[in-house]
Specification:
By secondary structure, this protein is of the alpha+beta class. It folds into three domains: 151 residues; 99 residues; 142 residues, Heat Shock Protein 90 (2-Layer Sandwich), CATH 3.30.565.10. It contains nine helices and 14 strands. Strand 13 and strand 14 form a beta hairpin. It starts with 5 loop residues before the first helix and ends in a 5-residue tail after the last strand.
Length: 448
Protein backbone atom coordinates (compact mmCIF):
# COMPACT_ATOMS: atom_id res chain seq x y z
CA UNK A 1 0.00 0.00 0.00
CA UNK A 2 1.48 3.30 -1.08
CA UNK A 3 1.87 6.05 1.50
CA UNK A 4 0.22 8.62 -0.76
CA UNK A 5 -2.88 6.50 -1.46
CA UNK A 6 -6.37 7.19 -0.16
CA UNK A 7 -6.49 3.76 1.46
CA UNK A 8 -3.30 4.44 3.42
CA UNK A 9 -4.55 7.83 4.57
CA UNK A 10 -7.91 6.44 5.68
CA UNK A 11 -6.37 3.46 7.46
CA UNK A 12 -3.58 5.51 9.06
CA UNK A 13 -6.02 8.18 10.25
CA UNK A 14 -8.50 5.65 11.62
CA UNK A 15 -5.70 3.60 13.22
CA UNK A 16 -4.18 6.62 14.96
CA UNK A 17 -7.57 7.78 16.20
CA UNK A 18 -8.55 4.29 17.36
CA UNK A 19 -5.19 3.83 19.07
CA UNK A 20 -5.54 7.15 20.89
CA UNK A 21 -9.09 6.27 22.02
CA UNK A 22 -8.08 2.77 23.13
CA UNK A 23 -5.03 4.04 25.04
CA UNK A 24 -7.11 6.74 26.76
CA UNK A 25 -9.82 4.18 27.52
CA UNK A 26 -7.23 1.72 28.83
CA UNK A 27 -5.72 4.34 31.14
CA UNK A 28 -9.17 5.30 32.39
CA UNK A 29 -10.18 1.67 33.00
CA UNK A 30 -6.93 0.93 34.79
CA UNK A 31 -7.34 3.98 36.98
CA UNK A 32 -10.95 3.08 37.82
CA UNK A 33 -9.94 -0.50 38.61
CA UNK A 34 -7.10 0.69 40.85
CA UNK A 35 -9.49 2.98 42.73
CA UNK A 36 -12.01 0.16 43.09
CA UNK A 37 -9.41 -2.35 44.35
CA UNK A 38 -7.89 0.13 46.79
CA UNK A 39 -11.33 1.12 48.08
CA UNK A 40 -12.29 -2.53 48.49
CA UNK A 41 -8.99 -3.18 50.29
CA UNK A 42 -9.58 -0.26 52.65
CA UNK A 43 -13.13 -1.50 53.33
CA UNK A 44 -11.72 -4.92 54.17
CA UNK A 45 -9.21 -3.40 56.58
CA UNK A 46 -11.97 -1.32 58.20
CA UNK A 47 -13.99 -4.48 58.69
CA UNK A 48 -11.00 -6.15 60.35
CA UNK A 49 -10.57 -3.03 62.50
CA UNK A 50 -14.18 -3.29 63.66
CA UNK A 51 -13.59 -6.98 64.41
CA UNK A 52 -10.51 -6.05 66.46
CA UNK A 53 -12.55 -3.51 68.45
CA UNK A 54 -15.21 -6.10 69.15
CA UNK A 55 -12.66 -8.74 70.18
CA UNK A 56 -10.87 -6.64 72.80
CA UNK A 57 -11.75 -5.79 76.39
CA UNK A 58 -10.21 -3.01 78.46
CA UNK A 59 -10.11 -3.05 82.29
CA UNK A 60 -8.42 -0.37 84.44
CA UNK A 61 -6.94 -3.10 86.62
CA UNK A 62 -5.70 -5.57 84.01
CA UNK A 63 -5.38 -3.29 80.99
CA UNK A 64 -6.54 -4.27 77.51
CA UNK A 65 -6.68 -7.82 76.28
CA UNK A 66 -7.89 -9.86 73.26
CA UNK A 67 -10.87 -11.96 74.17
CA UNK A 68 -11.21 -14.04 70.95
CA UNK A 69 -9.46 -14.61 67.58
CA UNK A 70 -10.24 -12.26 64.73
CA UNK A 71 -10.96 -14.99 62.19
CA UNK A 72 -8.04 -14.07 59.87
CA UNK A 73 -5.37 -16.78 59.97
CA UNK A 74 -2.68 -14.54 58.54
CA UNK A 75 -2.62 -12.58 61.80
CA UNK A 76 -1.14 -15.72 63.40
CA UNK A 77 1.67 -16.36 60.84
CA UNK A 78 4.95 -14.52 61.31
CA UNK A 79 5.50 -11.72 58.77
CA UNK A 80 2.46 -12.82 56.77
CA UNK A 81 1.74 -9.25 55.65
CA UNK A 82 -1.39 -8.82 57.84
CA UNK A 83 -0.81 -7.18 61.23
CA UNK A 84 -2.73 -5.54 64.04
CA UNK A 85 -1.48 -3.46 66.95
CA UNK A 86 -3.09 -1.73 69.90
CA UNK A 87 -1.27 1.08 71.77
CA UNK A 88 -2.44 2.78 74.96
CA UNK A 89 -2.34 2.88 78.75
CA UNK A 90 1.40 2.24 78.71
CA UNK A 91 1.11 -1.07 76.94
CA UNK A 92 1.27 -2.40 73.36
CA UNK A 93 -0.67 -5.40 72.22
CA UNK A 94 0.17 -6.82 68.77
CA UNK A 95 -0.57 -9.78 66.50
CA UNK A 96 1.62 -12.86 66.31
CA UNK A 97 2.39 -11.99 62.70
CA UNK A 98 4.53 -9.06 63.91
CA UNK A 99 6.63 -11.56 65.86
CA UNK A 100 9.43 -9.44 67.39
CA UNK A 101 8.62 -6.30 65.35
CA UNK A 102 6.47 -3.29 66.06
CA UNK A 103 4.65 -0.91 63.74
CA UNK A 104 6.10 2.60 63.65
CA UNK A 105 3.06 4.82 63.36
CA UNK A 106 3.08 8.57 62.89
CA UNK A 107 1.06 10.64 65.33
CA UNK A 108 -2.54 10.64 64.14
CA UNK A 109 -5.46 12.87 64.92
CA UNK A 110 -8.62 11.44 66.41
CA UNK A 111 -11.02 9.46 64.29
CA UNK A 112 -10.44 6.85 61.59
CA UNK A 113 -7.44 7.32 59.30
CA UNK A 114 -6.40 5.29 56.24
CA UNK A 115 -3.01 5.86 54.63
CA UNK A 116 0.00 4.18 53.09
CA UNK A 117 2.86 3.94 55.54
CA UNK A 118 6.02 5.82 54.58
CA UNK A 119 8.06 3.23 56.49
CA UNK A 120 8.51 -0.36 55.25
CA UNK A 121 6.85 -3.21 57.14
CA UNK A 122 8.56 -6.06 58.99
CA UNK A 123 9.50 -7.79 55.72
CA UNK A 124 10.28 -4.59 53.86
CA UNK A 125 6.83 -4.47 52.31
CA UNK A 126 4.71 -1.39 51.70
CA UNK A 127 1.85 -1.30 54.19
CA UNK A 128 -1.65 0.08 53.89
CA UNK A 129 -2.72 1.18 57.38
CA UNK A 130 -6.13 1.85 58.91
CA UNK A 131 -6.04 3.30 62.43
CA UNK A 132 -8.56 4.62 64.92
CA UNK A 133 -8.25 6.36 68.29
CA UNK A 134 -10.83 5.20 70.85
CA UNK A 135 -11.47 6.35 74.40
CA UNK A 136 -12.15 3.60 76.97
CA UNK A 137 -14.00 4.11 80.24
CA UNK A 138 -11.65 4.30 83.23
CA UNK A 139 -8.64 5.25 81.11
CA UNK A 140 -7.32 8.78 80.81
CA UNK A 141 -5.58 8.31 77.47
CA UNK A 142 -7.07 7.02 74.28
CA UNK A 143 -6.23 3.66 72.74
CA UNK A 144 -4.94 3.47 69.17
CA UNK A 145 -6.21 0.48 67.19
CA UNK A 146 -4.27 -0.28 63.94
CA UNK A 147 -4.73 -2.76 61.12
CA UNK A 148 -1.91 -2.98 58.54
CA UNK A 149 -1.73 -5.10 55.38
CA UNK A 150 0.78 -5.66 52.60
CA UNK A 151 -0.10 -3.66 49.44
CA UNK A 152 1.59 -6.23 47.21
CA UNK A 153 -1.69 -8.12 47.09
CA UNK A 154 -3.41 -5.05 45.66
CA UNK A 155 -0.58 -4.37 43.21
CA UNK A 156 -0.67 -7.99 42.04
CA UNK A 157 -4.38 -7.71 41.27
CA UNK A 158 -3.83 -4.44 39.43
CA UNK A 159 -0.94 -5.93 37.40
CA UNK A 160 -3.05 -8.94 36.42
CA UNK A 161 -5.90 -6.67 35.38
CA UNK A 162 -3.58 -4.35 33.44
CA UNK A 163 -2.01 -7.31 31.65
CA UNK A 164 -5.41 -8.70 30.69
CA UNK A 165 -6.54 -5.21 29.69
CA UNK A 166 -3.45 -4.66 27.54
CA UNK A 167 -3.74 -7.82 25.46
CA UNK A 168 -7.51 -7.41 25.24
CA UNK A 169 -7.11 -3.89 23.86
CA UNK A 170 -4.39 -5.20 21.53
CA UNK A 171 -6.73 -7.86 20.18
CA UNK A 172 -9.47 -5.24 19.88
CA UNK A 173 -7.10 -2.92 18.00
CA UNK A 174 -6.11 -5.72 15.62
CA UNK A 175 -9.78 -6.53 15.05
CA UNK A 176 -10.55 -2.87 14.38
CA UNK A 177 -7.67 -2.63 11.90
CA UNK A 178 -8.86 -5.77 10.12
CA UNK A 179 -12.40 -4.39 10.01
CA UNK A 180 -11.11 -1.05 8.69
CA UNK A 181 -9.06 -2.81 6.00
CA UNK A 182 -12.09 -4.80 4.86
CA UNK A 183 -14.34 -1.75 4.98
CA UNK A 184 -11.89 0.50 3.12
CA UNK A 185 -11.15 -2.12 0.47
CA UNK A 186 -14.87 -2.64 -0.02
CA UNK A 187 -15.53 1.10 -0.02
CA UNK A 188 -12.74 1.87 -2.50
CA UNK A 189 -13.56 -1.04 -4.81
CA UNK A 190 -15.46 1.23 -7.24
CA UNK A 191 -12.40 3.48 -7.52
CA UNK A 192 -10.23 0.47 -8.31
CA UNK A 193 -12.72 -0.60 -10.97
CA UNK A 194 -12.67 2.92 -12.38
CA UNK A 195 -8.87 2.87 -12.44
CA UNK A 196 -8.82 -0.53 -14.17
CA UNK A 197 -11.34 0.73 -16.73
CA UNK A 198 -9.18 3.78 -17.44
CA UNK A 199 -6.12 1.54 -17.86
CA UNK A 200 -8.09 -0.59 -20.33
CA UNK A 201 -9.00 2.54 -22.27
CA UNK A 202 -5.44 3.90 -22.30
CA UNK A 203 -4.12 0.50 -23.49
CA UNK A 204 -6.75 0.23 -26.18
CA UNK A 205 -8.71 -2.63 -24.59
CA UNK A 206 -11.88 -0.52 -24.35
CA UNK A 207 -13.19 2.73 -25.79
CA UNK A 208 -15.38 3.92 -22.90
CA UNK A 209 -16.12 3.31 -19.21
CA UNK A 210 -18.58 0.48 -18.77
CA UNK A 211 -20.53 -0.74 -15.75
CA UNK A 212 -22.43 0.90 -12.90
CA UNK A 213 -20.78 3.00 -10.21
CA UNK A 214 -21.95 4.40 -6.85
CA UNK A 215 -23.78 7.72 -6.81
CA UNK A 216 -20.62 9.59 -5.75
CA UNK A 217 -18.55 8.25 -8.68
CA UNK A 218 -21.19 7.87 -11.40
CA UNK A 219 -21.03 11.59 -12.42
CA UNK A 220 -17.24 11.28 -12.79
CA UNK A 221 -17.59 8.21 -15.01
CA UNK A 222 -20.21 9.99 -17.13
CA UNK A 223 -17.99 13.04 -17.52
CA UNK A 224 -15.02 10.86 -18.51
CA UNK A 225 -17.10 9.13 -21.17
CA UNK A 226 -18.23 12.52 -22.43
CA UNK A 227 -14.61 13.70 -22.51
CA UNK A 228 -13.53 10.61 -24.48
CA UNK A 229 -16.30 11.15 -27.03
CA UNK A 230 -15.51 14.85 -27.26
CA UNK A 231 -11.80 14.08 -27.75
CA UNK A 232 -12.56 11.75 -30.65
CA UNK A 233 -14.86 14.38 -32.20
CA UNK A 234 -12.25 17.12 -31.86
CA UNK A 235 -9.59 14.90 -33.43
CA UNK A 236 -11.82 14.05 -36.37
CA UNK A 237 -12.66 17.73 -36.85
CA UNK A 238 -8.96 18.64 -36.73
CA UNK A 239 -8.15 15.98 -39.32
CA UNK A 240 -10.90 17.24 -41.59
CA UNK A 241 -9.70 20.82 -41.28
CA UNK A 242 -6.09 19.80 -41.94
CA UNK A 243 -7.18 17.87 -45.02
CA UNK A 244 -9.24 20.81 -46.25
CA UNK A 245 -6.30 23.15 -45.76
CA UNK A 246 -3.95 20.82 -47.62
CA UNK A 247 -6.43 20.47 -50.48
CA UNK A 248 -6.88 24.24 -50.64
CA UNK A 249 -3.10 24.73 -50.90
CA UNK A 250 -2.43 21.90 -53.34
CA UNK A 251 -4.81 23.31 -55.97
CA UNK A 252 -2.96 26.63 -56.46
CA UNK A 253 0.37 24.77 -56.20
CA UNK A 254 -0.73 22.51 -59.05
CA UNK A 255 -1.59 25.59 -61.09
CA UNK A 256 1.87 27.05 -60.42
CA UNK A 257 3.50 23.73 -61.31
CA UNK A 258 1.64 23.62 -64.63
CA UNK A 259 2.67 27.19 -65.43
CA UNK A 260 6.32 26.33 -64.86
CA UNK A 261 6.09 23.60 -67.50
CA UNK A 262 4.68 26.08 -70.03
CA UNK A 263 7.00 28.99 -69.34
CA UNK A 264 10.71 28.36 -69.62
CA UNK A 265 13.42 30.35 -67.89
CA UNK A 266 15.26 30.84 -64.60
CA UNK A 267 12.16 32.19 -62.87
CA UNK A 268 9.98 29.22 -63.80
CA UNK A 269 12.70 26.81 -62.67
CA UNK A 270 13.00 28.57 -59.31
CA UNK A 271 9.23 28.57 -58.89
CA UNK A 272 9.11 24.88 -59.83
CA UNK A 273 11.68 23.98 -57.18
CA UNK A 274 9.87 25.95 -54.51
CA UNK A 275 6.53 24.40 -55.49
CA UNK A 276 8.10 20.95 -55.02
CA UNK A 277 9.46 21.96 -51.60
CA UNK A 278 6.07 23.35 -50.57
CA UNK A 279 4.33 20.14 -51.62
CA UNK A 280 6.79 18.11 -49.57
CA UNK A 281 6.26 20.37 -46.56
CA UNK A 282 2.48 20.10 -46.87
CA UNK A 283 2.61 16.30 -47.15
CA UNK A 284 4.96 16.02 -44.18
CA UNK A 285 3.19 18.36 -41.82
CA UNK A 286 -0.26 17.11 -42.82
CA UNK A 287 0.72 13.54 -41.98
CA UNK A 288 2.39 14.64 -38.74
CA UNK A 289 -0.57 16.79 -37.67
CA UNK A 290 -3.04 13.98 -38.32
CA UNK A 291 -0.91 11.48 -36.45
CA UNK A 292 -0.34 13.85 -33.50
CA UNK A 293 -4.08 14.40 -33.23
CA UNK A 294 -4.93 10.70 -33.23
CA UNK A 295 -2.02 9.42 -31.11
CA UNK A 296 -3.67 10.61 -27.91
CA UNK A 297 -7.16 9.28 -28.62
CA UNK A 298 -8.16 7.16 -25.63
CA UNK A 299 -9.32 3.66 -26.42
CA UNK A 300 -8.10 3.61 -30.04
CA UNK A 301 -7.07 0.13 -31.24
CA UNK A 302 -6.65 -1.37 -34.69
CA UNK A 303 -6.36 -4.90 -36.03
CA UNK A 304 -2.88 -5.12 -37.54
CA UNK A 305 -3.71 -8.23 -39.56
CA UNK A 306 -6.62 -6.52 -41.31
CA UNK A 307 -4.54 -3.46 -42.24
CA UNK A 308 -1.63 -5.56 -43.51
CA UNK A 309 -3.88 -7.81 -45.59
CA UNK A 310 -5.69 -4.81 -47.15
CA UNK A 311 -2.36 -3.23 -48.06
CA UNK A 312 -1.07 -6.52 -49.50
CA UNK A 313 -4.04 -6.85 -51.84
CA UNK A 314 -3.77 -3.21 -52.94
CA UNK A 315 -0.02 -3.30 -53.62
CA UNK A 316 -0.32 -6.70 -55.30
CA UNK A 317 -2.71 -5.20 -57.84
CA UNK A 318 -0.62 -2.05 -58.32
CA UNK A 319 2.59 -4.00 -58.99
CA UNK A 320 0.98 -6.97 -60.77
CA UNK A 321 2.76 -6.09 -63.99
CA UNK A 322 6.19 -6.44 -62.35
CA UNK A 323 5.42 -9.85 -60.83
CA UNK A 324 6.12 -8.73 -57.25
CA UNK A 325 5.26 -11.41 -54.68
CA UNK A 326 4.26 -10.03 -51.27
CA UNK A 327 4.46 -12.50 -48.36
CA UNK A 328 2.62 -11.65 -45.13
CA UNK A 329 3.00 -13.23 -41.68
CA UNK A 330 0.80 -11.69 -38.99
CA UNK A 331 -1.04 -13.20 -35.96
CA UNK A 332 -4.77 -12.55 -36.28
CA UNK A 333 -5.14 -11.24 -32.70
CA UNK A 334 -2.42 -8.59 -32.92
CA UNK A 335 -3.91 -5.18 -32.09
CA UNK A 336 -2.18 -1.83 -32.51
CA UNK A 337 -2.86 0.70 -29.75
CA UNK A 338 -3.60 3.61 -32.01
CA UNK A 339 -5.53 4.92 -35.01
CA UNK A 340 -6.16 2.82 -38.12
CA UNK A 341 -5.23 5.60 -40.56
CA UNK A 342 -1.87 6.11 -38.86
CA UNK A 343 -1.10 2.38 -39.01
CA UNK A 344 -2.06 2.34 -42.69
CA UNK A 345 0.16 5.36 -43.30
CA UNK A 346 3.20 3.79 -41.65
CA UNK A 347 2.94 0.24 -43.03
CA UNK A 348 1.80 1.56 -46.40
CA UNK A 349 4.85 3.80 -46.79
CA UNK A 350 7.22 0.99 -45.80
CA UNK A 351 5.53 -1.57 -48.05
CA UNK A 352 5.31 0.84 -51.00
CA UNK A 353 8.98 1.71 -50.63
CA UNK A 354 9.86 -2.02 -50.54
CA UNK A 355 7.75 -2.75 -53.63
CA UNK A 356 9.33 0.18 -55.45
CA UNK A 357 12.85 -1.22 -55.03
CA UNK A 358 12.14 -4.97 -54.95
CA UNK A 359 13.18 -7.19 -57.84
CA UNK A 360 10.46 -9.73 -57.23
CA UNK A 361 9.82 -10.39 -53.51
CA UNK A 362 8.63 -8.39 -50.49
CA UNK A 363 8.12 -9.86 -47.04
CA UNK A 364 5.99 -8.30 -44.26
CA UNK A 365 6.27 -10.02 -40.87
CA UNK A 366 4.44 -8.98 -37.69
CA UNK A 367 5.41 -10.29 -34.25
CA UNK A 368 4.48 -9.28 -30.72
CA UNK A 369 6.09 -9.02 -27.30
CA UNK A 370 4.55 -8.33 -23.92
CA UNK A 371 3.67 -4.73 -24.78
CA UNK A 372 4.93 -4.00 -28.30
CA UNK A 373 4.33 -4.92 -31.93
CA UNK A 374 7.31 -5.39 -34.24
CA UNK A 375 6.60 -4.97 -37.96
CA UNK A 376 9.42 -5.96 -40.31
CA UNK A 377 9.27 -5.08 -44.03
CA UNK A 378 12.00 -6.55 -46.29
CA UNK A 379 12.68 -6.61 -50.01
CA UNK A 380 15.16 -8.30 -52.36
CA UNK A 381 16.21 -5.05 -53.99
CA UNK A 382 19.65 -3.41 -54.08
CA UNK A 383 19.47 -2.43 -50.43
CA UNK A 384 20.93 0.68 -48.90
CA UNK A 385 24.50 1.30 -47.70
CA UNK A 386 24.82 1.67 -43.96
CA UNK A 387 26.13 5.23 -44.18
CA UNK A 388 22.99 6.32 -46.09
CA UNK A 389 20.35 4.74 -43.83
CA UNK A 390 20.33 7.58 -41.32
CA UNK A 391 20.12 10.11 -44.14
CA UNK A 392 17.08 8.33 -45.58
CA UNK A 393 15.18 8.98 -42.35
CA UNK A 394 15.67 12.72 -42.80
CA UNK A 395 12.91 14.76 -44.38
CA UNK A 396 13.06 14.89 -48.16
CA UNK A 397 16.10 12.63 -48.56
CA UNK A 398 16.21 10.78 -51.91
CA UNK A 399 18.31 7.69 -52.71
CA UNK A 400 17.56 7.79 -56.42
CA UNK A 401 16.18 10.95 -58.06
CA UNK A 402 14.93 8.91 -61.02
CA UNK A 403 12.40 7.02 -58.90
CA UNK A 404 8.97 8.62 -58.27
CA UNK A 405 8.09 10.01 -54.87
CA UNK A 406 8.87 12.92 -52.58
CA UNK A 407 11.39 11.12 -50.35
CA UNK A 408 9.23 11.78 -47.28
CA UNK A 409 7.89 8.25 -46.73
CA UNK A 410 10.46 6.96 -44.25
CA UNK A 411 10.72 10.23 -42.33
CA UNK A 412 6.91 10.37 -42.03
CA UNK A 413 6.89 6.78 -40.70
CA UNK A 414 9.55 7.66 -38.15
CA UNK A 415 7.70 10.80 -37.00
CA UNK A 416 4.37 9.00 -36.62
CA UNK A 417 5.93 6.04 -34.79
CA UNK A 418 7.63 8.32 -32.27
CA UNK A 419 4.29 9.98 -31.53
CA UNK A 420 3.23 6.53 -30.33
CA UNK A 421 6.49 6.04 -28.38
CA UNK A 422 7.69 3.66 -31.11
CA UNK A 423 10.67 3.72 -33.45
CA UNK A 424 11.87 2.88 -36.96
CA UNK A 425 15.23 1.17 -37.59
CA UNK A 426 16.76 0.41 -41.00
CA UNK A 427 19.04 -2.57 -41.60
CA UNK A 428 20.02 -5.28 -44.04
CA UNK A 429 17.35 -7.79 -45.06
CA UNK A 430 17.83 -11.54 -45.25
CA UNK A 431 16.44 -11.27 -48.81
CA UNK A 432 19.38 -9.05 -49.74
CA UNK A 433 17.67 -5.68 -49.83
CA UNK A 434 16.59 -3.15 -47.18
CA UNK A 435 14.95 -4.13 -43.91
CA UNK A 436 12.70 -1.66 -42.07
CA UNK A 437 11.82 -2.67 -38.50
CA UNK A 438 8.93 -0.68 -36.99
CA UNK A 439 8.11 -0.89 -33.26
CA UNK A 440 4.66 0.19 -32.05
CA UNK A 441 2.60 -0.19 -28.84
CA UNK A 442 0.46 -3.30 -28.43
CA UNK A 443 -3.20 -3.21 -27.41
CA UNK A 444 -4.65 -6.15 -25.52
CA UNK A 445 -7.95 -7.52 -26.72
CA UNK A 446 -11.00 -6.81 -24.56
CA UNK A 447 -11.62 -10.49 -23.95
CA UNK A 448 -8.02 -11.00 -22.92
Amino acid sequence: MRTNSLAFRLIAGAALWSMAVLIAGGILLSSLFRDAVETSFDDRLLALLESLLAATQADPQTGIELTRPLGESRFDRAYSGFYWQIDGAGQTLRSRSLFDQQLNLPRQSTGIQAFTSPDPGPSGETLRIVTRDIAKPGFERRFNYTIAADLREVEAQIRRFNGTLAWSLGVLMAGLLAAMLVQIRFGLQPLRRLRAALVDISHGRADRLEGSYPAEIAPLADELNTLISHSATVVQRARTQAGNLAHALKTPLSVLANETTVTQGPLSEAVGRQVTVMRQQIDHHLARAQAAASANILGARTSTATVVEDLRRTLQRIHAGRGIVIEVTCPADTLFRGDRQDLQEMIGNLAENACKWARGQVRIAVSRTADHIEITVEDDGPGLPEDQRTKMLQRGARFDETMPGSGLGLSIVQDISRLYSGDLVLGSAALGGLQARLTLPLATSISG
